Amino acid sequence: MRLILSTLALLLAHVAVSIAYVPYYGNPAPDAGVVAKIRINRRGGSVYNPESVADLARFNAVLQSSLERYSRTKRELQGNRVVRRTLPLPDKLAPIGEDGSWYADVELGNPGQKVQFDIDMTSSDFWVESTTSVHGTRFEASNSQSYFSEHKFVFRDCIGSLDSLVLGDKKFNIEFAHCSPPRASIRTLNPSGGIMGLAHSSLSQTSLPHFFEDAKEKGKLAEGMFAIEFNKDDTDSSAVLSFGGVARHHDDPLYAPVKTFGFWQILFKSLMVDGNTVLDNIQGVIDVTSPFVLAPPEDVRMFYNAISGAQPLANGFWSYPCFEDPKIHIEHAGWLFPFKDSSLGKVKESSGYCIGPLVEADLAGLWVIGEPFLKGVISIFDFDQKRVGIRSA
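^ thats the sequence. predicted structure below, dont judge the formating
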């Protein structure tokens, strides 16, 4: 009898939640097949400015954070294709609120509570951590009338949850991991907030549905894709992230297939400096969160050898005479796209040397194509057709 009553109670709870959510997923849905767009910002402002003296201490801190994110994965053979998997993590899914990270202000729950979600292109989970710290943006599940959970753990100290999420002016139902570290844990000193994982589902640490697959299946997104476009103002460290399509009209993008599932990894045919091909067949991961272009040390050395007067600095960074002003292009789908920024800033106030956009990083042959290139283009990430589109912004 207890088992029957318990099962009945659970079914009633599901029904109640379904009714509560009719305004969001209900069927005459004028919002069905939408394109939702939100503004994202770089925490702490732009990491670099081509016209200013570089903050090398900050460069090093942000670089280490990027390397740690990529070190959390491994390659596996699945059938006839290579995929990326996330290595088992001991106690948390990813750091929140780090300097230099990109984030979006979104509303979670009903009434909406502002939560800052960090953008992560090396994971695929949506999750929220509520700590006792005064830092960050804390989500209180008890204050949301639409919050629901079966209290099943999907990760350490994280339960599978369901609530409404507002992206721009569009509402979605979303399943996410809600994490509440115990008071005795050092994690309670970390800031509260969320992570918005934009990678393929193979990089999930939980058993929850992938946001894009779920939203597309339920008809809430026009297409299973997202796009990122930086603000054209170099002093504005913001961009537009659109879900379900492209925020505004552009010429048709040029697409390349994803080579290894997990990251958004595609093949670039060549990299050119001042019209001369320096490197061929680059396996590049597109990552808007990286303020640098990371590349294998031997490739970086070949690149800077093509720039007269270039010399290494510490921690994988290089400098070159500012007056050289190299013109850097990368070939994608038969077209040459220029780097928006060939300089990350000056080495010193009185120095005639600038810091180059390529940084040495040993990532098993992978490149990470970051902001110096992506600021000049719109990038489109297509889950449905497993491809990446690029077009001049």
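The CA atoms of residues 124 and 201 lie 5 Å apart.
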